[in-house]
Amino acid sequence: MRSSILQLDNRTDMATKQMLENVVKRKEKFERFKFRHLISVWATIGMATFYFGYLYYTVGVNYSYSFAAMFSAFVNDSNNLFFLTVCVGLYGLMNLLREKREKFEKEYHALRCEIVDRSKDLWKKEDEWANRHLVFDMMKKEYDINLFHENK
Prior knowledge:
mainly alpha
């Protein structure tokens, strides 16, 4: 368990600390897949741009006088199959990572909303309820997790 969550002492019980730890883990997983998806988007765009430039200079410029000549040059160049396969593969990876990112975002948001909804149950005692804003502030400062409201 993270030290900042353990230092909450008597402000929360162990079950609440475990919930806070789980929401931090899910946020980290969401952020990791968000970054991976962003990298895959830029890799796909970069590879597609490179491939279209390659096609333009190897096929378009040299054989622009005839569509049949362009098609023949396209088919005869084995690099086109390689680049096309890489572009399609990167596009598939990008979509796969987008789905995983959305899945982890839903899990993170659901657990965060559960903590917000159950805050009256998690901080039952009068002194715990009065000090819960310190826990919420710590989560906002340390992990950028807003527990004050359900909205993102």
